[in-house]
Amino acid sequence: MNSSHGSSPELLQDLEGYTPLRLAVAGGHADVVEALMAFSSYKSCLSTAAELKDSSLAAELLFLALRLDSPGIVALLRPHVSDINRRNVCGETALFFATRLGSSECIKILLQKNGPSQPDPNITVRVRVWTPLTVASVQGYAQIVDLLIQAGADINAKDAFNWRIMEHAGYRGHLQIAEMVLTSNHPEPLKHAGVSVKFSQSSPTTANDLEVYVNLGPLNTRNNKKVVDLSYY
Fold this sequence. Notes:
The protein is an all-alpha fold.
């Protein structure tokens, strides 16, 4: 056993460096996590930089709880994370990480104003310059898209290839999400050349049915080709 955190039994580590709290989080035992956090020594361990060196313990446990999709544990850890926008080793924030995993319940908890810091829905990952809203649109998570838009996510954000949120959703056939983004930008029906823009969310009903999705122009905004004008027809 390793007693580097002091003599308190709840802070002792095993040979792999795991404390009882970490093991409880890894096992998804919310009631055990709550009991351990009731100890004043654990509250100090979760918030005192001197004991944690870089105050990363709560953030690491939060990412672990998110990966296991444990909303109860996420709710217990959320108030103890000093920087909710702290990135993991992959450069992802907790909000981005939860969005990528499609955990809507955990995202609701992260967006609650019950911690020392608030999540920024517009922080991007460094490689593709995707925001959490981009990921939700690509994956087709309509409920999460709605949560992020309500939280102030930028629906006009562009990624490293200059693609917008609606373009990602439309390209992958997530028409409900594309319409959500469109109506967020334009509360009134969008019209161009006298033609109303409307998305259809119908699906083929039999194996013999076929749907064709047509983009009237390039989705890459760096392409200078003109959009097809159907107003003549």
